[in-house]
From TrEMBL:
Family named by the database record: Belongs to the beta-defensin family.
InterPro entries linked: Defensin_beta-like
Coiled-coil residue spans: none
Domain of life of the source: Eukaryota
GO biological processes: defense response to Gram-negative bacterium; defense response to Gram-positive bacterium; innate immune response in mucosa
SUPFAM superfamilies per UniProt: Defensin-like (SSF57392)
Protein's UniProt name: Defensin
Amino acid sequence: MKILYLLFAVLLFLFQAAPGSADPIFADTAECRSQGNFCRAGACPPTFAASGSCHGGLLKCCSKILAK
């Protein structure tokens, strides 16, 4: 039974992905993130506004609304 825990740990180690390696970088996503914004599916949170698109137009780029 103890070997199952070791086998499970080894399998998790083998199948982990490096951060960001699963999804390709789209130009609009890179531009959004370089400006300090973030991408989100659906509506942006209350103090944020949609300032563009991400992931090839599938997501919204949310940026902080600046108070005057």
